[in-house]
Amino acid sequence: MVEPDWIAVDWGTSSMRAWGIAIDGSVLFSVASDRGMARLAPGEYPAVLTALVADHLESAGPRRDVVICGMAGARQGWAEAPYLDVPVALDELLAGAVAPVPAVGRLLPRILPGLCQRRAGAEDVMRGEETQLLGLATLLPDFDGVVALPGTHCKWVRLAGRRVEGFSSAMTGEIFEILRLHSVLRHSLGGEIDPAERWRGIAEGLAAGVAAPEKLLSQLFRVRAAALLSGKTPSWCAGYLSGLLVGADIGGQQSALAGMPVALIGAPELSRLYAEGLKLIGGTAQIVDASAAVLAGLTAARRAAT
Amino acid sequence: MVEPDWIAVDWGTSSMRAWGIAIDGSVLFSVASDRGMARLAPGEYPAVLTALVADHLESAGPRRDVVICGMAGARQGWAEAPYLDVPVALDELLAGAVAPVPAVGRLLPRILPGLCQRRAGAEDVMRGEETQLLGLATLLPDFDGVVALPGTHCKWVRLAGRRVEGFSSAMTGEIFEILRLHSVLRHSLGGEIDPAERWRGIAEGLAAGVAAPEKLLSQLFRVRAAALLSGKTPSWCAGYLSGLLVGADIGGQQSALAGMPVALIGAPELSRLYAEGLKLIGGTAQIVDASAAVLAGLTAARRAAT
């Protein structure tokens, strides 16, 4: 068995993932679990980690670094890793990993901090995305522009080389979910999805959102009214709702994006949606896979420390 | 016992209210129930109505008109009263009451239609508010401007005399509720409310929403971040969330409001919130009580038919 040199971990709110990394940087194994922060008490992290990686390690092997990013470092997580304040150089990430995590058998965990922005009126926080940003800065060292990280809370980040100047979190993904599950719009969204019809809705929603992001509250109700009056299908309505929210998210950033290169870090389908929306304001985005970014970031953070 | 000449009913989604009206127009009694459309099958309406008003009527009295507005006329309601298309003169409301409702004992129910706007890209519907608009047009016959009817779905209506030119529904109230109950923001909102602190949050939220309605998705996350980083209290956060949503709703209407008189029909506290927000864009609003408006509207609709 080839043994990993160290272990990389992305520990989020609803799930976690760990990779065994060889001394040459190649990935030896990848394991995942749905035991995210939301389903764990602080004392349960060591056992979850050990159970996941045990099969891949010799029991009498050497001590190994475990570099962890994400919600494991939140106050309700494994151990609090206090935020670093922006503006900040991302190389400080591992230096900032002060979380006092005791060794777990032969594993030596270190938890990376998140970032915060304390400026009154623009308070914001992130945990996990900072490591993806460090990864992006490693993969694209000359990048100087805006990075969008779509998801539950889409982060828009001004990144210059390895320096984070500032950022803003939009509740785009979470609002989609709670509208879909809990609002009057749910009556117009159920059932099986026809992909072509859904993309027609997405295109119309993106255009409406980008054109008038200030009218989001009223454009949302159109999902219901268009189903009642114009016989729009649930597939169209689901697409329109996604497109409208993403379009309004992009439209709200338009002045900050003017003339800037844009990079997207996210899951493939969501990144495609944002890329389509950015086209509508004349932008093109470089797309970076989220797993590749977080692995590159954890690797860079460990290298900075050793 | 003074017997009513007719009965006015506002039958909404979550509740209903009925008034007994004397021949001189005075209100003889008012009764209410939580049996709104959401809690009723179509066949249950007659019994609910009868049970509510029976104590106030002589069993051998004359036949009496019952004029009903609201969700009782929806497809899932008592009997469908098809929408009238805008632009429309509000006098057509009772002429449009084609819902085939059989007599209920000695009661003769008529259900008023809602309004719809079929223009592609601006589809919209209302049920109940059209009657409040008719009431406003009766109480303020020279009104020519924009009427805001805040609530679960805030309606913004271009009204000229008794003519509705067009309208737009914003999901402001419903989004407040689902964010409060189901989103990550709920962690920052619980507990007892301090009114002064809440109004400080409202003022800050109104200003932020009116100034940049296109940034609503990211300004919402500030509720959470400001609680984490700046120690904002749950009272402040609850106020900021209300103010931000109302401010963004008003900000999104700013171009349509330019120079127009504005009237507000709603519950007192919500109307005050909208009035404060309108002040920030240099507007002043005439406030009309929602119950007074619906009663005046039902009265005018009945008069038009008899």
Write the layout of secondary structure elements.
Two copies of one chain form a homodimer.
Chain A: E1 6-11, E2 16-21, E3 27-33, H1 45-53, E4 64-70, E5 84-85, E6 88-89, H2 92-95, E7 107-111, E8 115-117, E9 124-126, H3 129-139, E10 144-149, E11 154-160, E12 163-170, H4 172-182, H5 195-211, H6 216-230, H7 234-257, E13 262-266, H8 268-280, E14 285-289, H9 290-305
What is the radius of gyration of chain A computed over CA atoms, rounded to a whole number of angstroms? 21 Å
Mean pLDDT of chain A: 94
Determine the fraction of residues in helical runs of chain A and give it as a percent range.
25-40%
Q: Return the structural class of chain A.
A: alpha/beta
Separate helix tally of chain A = 9
- Which stretches of chain A are poorly predicted, pLDDT < 50 over at least 5 residues? none
How many strands appear in the DSSP assignment of chain A?
14
Oligomer: homodimer
**Order of strands, widest sheet of chain A:** 6-12-11-10-13-14
